[in-house]
Specification:
The protein is an alpha/beta fold. The protein is about 20% helix and about 20% strand. It is built from 15 helices and 30 strands. An eight-stranded parallel barrel has the order 12-13-18-19-20-21-22-23. Strands 1, 2, 3, 4, 7 and 8 form a six-stranded antiparallel sheet that branches. Strands 24-25-26-30-28 form a five-stranded antiparallel sheet, with helices on one face. Helix 13 runs parallel beside helix 15. The longest helix has 19 residues.
């Protein structure tokens, strides 16, 4: 089956050879179709470079290092800056390919053309040499042609509104790599697919996959204390159009991507959306000392931000910075996202260090970045989620001010920071905490940003896990090999009196209580909640808050913790379900007949240090939905005075992390005990109550 997208351009070309070059029949190709594409008579190769003076196509037998054919593009096969050629008689299973590009070499002007460099196609759909995790790439990268004939059947994408999502961030390898995962193919897309029933049981309806574009995990490989460390997270892209083949259970020659497509198809069939963490802020080519395998060789001065002297700006903290608002780079990124949306049925994208996408070619912030605007209004991307990490390593912090066109959502870093401060006992921050719980309208004006701009989180891949947030005062990154100097020192954590692991039952009870407090608040806050995989069963990274290089038990989920911390798991599962059952926590409803507004904050007074946030509304069928979130982060017991209700209604206790009224913290039999006008709240505890008919 051929790609239907090619019918239109193919219909304009008479598919007969026009020339013979080095024994191969060729003709000018389809200039509008970037990359290498299988067609009935052979393969179409299209590549462009603004500064190149000539280009050669190299063909290799599978896994070999010397080309069996070199086919230069005739000058007559070049239109503008685009080279395109159809090579007849090629079978995509018989070869791999790369390019050599010639042009001026002048580093001071950012020009690095070298006709000896073998270059990976920027639009490659599959990259060779990376299919076995942990095996170093000692040679150059080549590409394969991929035949897109995957059968999606009649599955449709869930199309879940942003406010209804519960996002679960995970690392594809680390999620099932530990033996305790029990999957047939650990550490792979298939291994994750085997765990879809678990995701459904937990109740999450979106997974956010850390980078799955082709990356080199062996970049910066080192040995530290006899243990290998490598680029485990994957934030060092080699190819933006190719899936990471070392995440597959089997090598997919010329069918690369099918295993990932099966995963996405099954996630969608089970009502779970798939969001990809994409890294357009830099590449694995690094700075002046880094390799030249693709972008540098095609147009170094276009793809990267360069100083007037030709050096690399480093707003990414990874050596180079992509020049995202140059028209050519903007076009490449837009085509890439369209490709993943149309070909892989991806439901959304989270953009790593997204503030870089709004920088001009000289690094200065732009008020209306053309790339961000193009993504916001692109028709093909019209239904996908666009989520920005609204800061970068160069100091540009745009939480609450990221250019959005009422389309972009943001990782709300201020929610994380403010709520961490408040939840560990800074009770004087109750007003700020209330604003975060209410949806951070001080940051996201509903009129101009909509009501779904805030992605709330307390934990993510970068930083402490939920368990470690209440087990460590300080980071413990010694295993990374940098003398514990890497990673953030601004953790806003508390070890509850003992640093790290302990057998002290009182300390453990407090830690578990604080973890439940944090998770419950996240599920009871307006905005889209997101948490890191394993937080639901208190996974630990042993105090490492920058586990980017740890492909071992530090980063892998230990599924035995699910049984070890089954009470916490049941609590988290319950709170996810509670959010799903109470729409008032997710969005404004019709006016409540009780007279209460949509959200009301009842702060601390002289008699109590309890923060109360009351959500009230009525659905279209007239059913009242009223929830009271009560927080006592103080270190002494406090009296909780409940808001008054109309005659015939009363408050019932839905969650109690202090276990004063619910022995398990949640209703064990589904029945909610009735509360009086006031309740005694244990120190550092949380309660959730619902208004109901008596």
């Amino acid at each position: 089956m051929e790609d239907n997208k090619l019918i239109a351009p193919m219909s304009r070309i008479h598919m007969v050879p026009m020339d013979v070059i080095n024994g191969f029949e060729v003709r000018p190709g389809m200039y509008e179709v970037n990359g290498a594409t299988a067609i009935p008579c052979g393969v179409n190769f299209t590549v462009y470079s603004y500064g190149a003076t000539s280009c050669e196509l190299l063909l290799y037998k599978r896994m070999e290092q010397e080309p069996y054919a070199v086919i230069p593009f005739p000058e007559s096969y070049k239109i503008g800056k685009v080279y395109s050629m159809i090579v007849f008689g090629l079978n995509i299973c018989d070869f791999e390919y790369a390019y050599r590009v010639d042009g001026p070499y002048d580093p001071g002007r950012g020009l690095l053309f070298n006709k000896k460099n073998v270059l990976l196609d920027i639009y490659a759909r599959a990259v060779t040499g990376q299919s076995v995790w942990g095996i170093p790439q000692n040679n150059f990268y080549k590409a394969r042609v991929v035949r897109d004939d995957f059968d999606w059947g009649n599955t449709t994408q869930p199309g879940i509104p942003m406010e209804d999502l519960v996002i679960y961030e995970l690392h594809v390898r680390g999620f099932t790599r530990h033996f305790s995962s029990g999957v047939v193919n650990p550490g792979t897309f298939d291994g994750l697919r085997e765990r879809i029933p678990y995701l459904k049981e937990l109740g999450v309806n979106a997974v956010e996959l850390m980078p799955v574009f082709e990356f080199d995990e062996m970049k910066d490989f080192r040995m530290v204390d006899g243990r290998p460390v490598l680029n485990y997270w994957g934030y060092n892209t080699i190819s933006f159009f190719a899936p990471n083949t070392s995440y597959t259970a089997e090598t997919e020659f010329n069918r690369e991507g099918n295993e990932l497509k099966r995963l996405i198809r099954e996630l969608n069939a089970n009502g779970i959306e798939c969001i990809l963490d994409v890294v357009f802020n830099h590449t694995a080519e690094g700075n002046e000392l880094g390799p030249c395998f693709s972008f540098k060789g095609f147009d170094n001065n276009i793809y990267y931000m360069l100083t007037p002297e030709g050096f690399y700006y480093n707003f990414s903290g990874c050596g180079n910075t992509m020049n995202c608002n140059h028209p050519m780079v903007q076009q490449m990124i837009l085509e890439c996202l369209r490709y993943w949306t149309a070909t892989y049925h991806v439901d959304g994208f989270r953009f790593d260090l997204a503030s870089i996408l709004g920088r001009n070619e000289d690094g200065s912030p732009m008020s209306k970045p053309p790339l961000l605007q193009s993504l916001a209004f692109d028709p093909l991307l019209g239904n996908v989620k666009l989520i920005a990490e609204a800061w970068d390593a160069g100091g540009l912090y745009q939480v609450g001010s990221f250019p959005s066109w009422n389309r972009w959502a943001e990782w709300n870093g201020k929610y994380r920071d403010d709520m961490r401060d408040y939840l560990k006992g800074n009770y004087g921050m109750w007003e700020t905490a209330a604003r975060r719980i209410m949806g951070s309208s001080d940051l996201y004006d509903p009129e101009h940003r909509g009501r779904n701009a805030s992605v709330n989180f307390l934990t993510c891949h970068d930083g402490f896990t939920l368990n470690d947030l209440y087990s460590y005062n300080w980071k413990h990154n010694e295993a990374n090999g940098w003398g514990n100097t890497d990673g953030s020192d601004d953790n806003r954590s508390w070890n509850c009196g003992v640093e790290g692991d302990t057998d002290d039952e009182n300390v453990l009870f407090l830690r578990h209580k604080l973890a439940k407090n944090a998770f419950a608040v996240l599920m009871c806050s307006r905005g889209t909640p997101m948490f890191f995989a394993g937080d639901e069963f208190l996974n630990t990274q042993f105090g490492n808050n920058n586990a980017y290089c740890q492909d071992n038990e530090i980063s892998w989920l230990n599924w035995r913790d699910r049984e070890k911390h089954k009470e916490h798991y049941k609590f988290c599962k319950y709170m996810i379900g509670f959010r799903r059952e109470h729409a008032i926590l997710r969005k404004a409803l019709l006016r409540s007949r009780t007279g209460y507004p949509d959200i009301q904050v009842m702060g601390m007074d002289d008699s109590s240090k309890v923060l109360r946030v009351v959500f009230a509304g009525c659905d279209e069928e007239g059913q009242e939905d009223m929830v009271c979130l009560a927080l006592n982060v103080f270190w002494e017991r406090q009296e909780l005075y409940l808001p008054s209700l109309p005659t015939g209604m009363g408050w019932k206790i839905a969650a109690d992390t202090g276990k004063e009224y619910l022995k398990a913290g949640i209703p064990e039999d589904g029945a909610l005990p009735l509360a009086g006008n006031s309740l005694s709240m244990q120190e550092r505890s949380l309660m959730v109550l619902v208004a109901d008919q008596l």
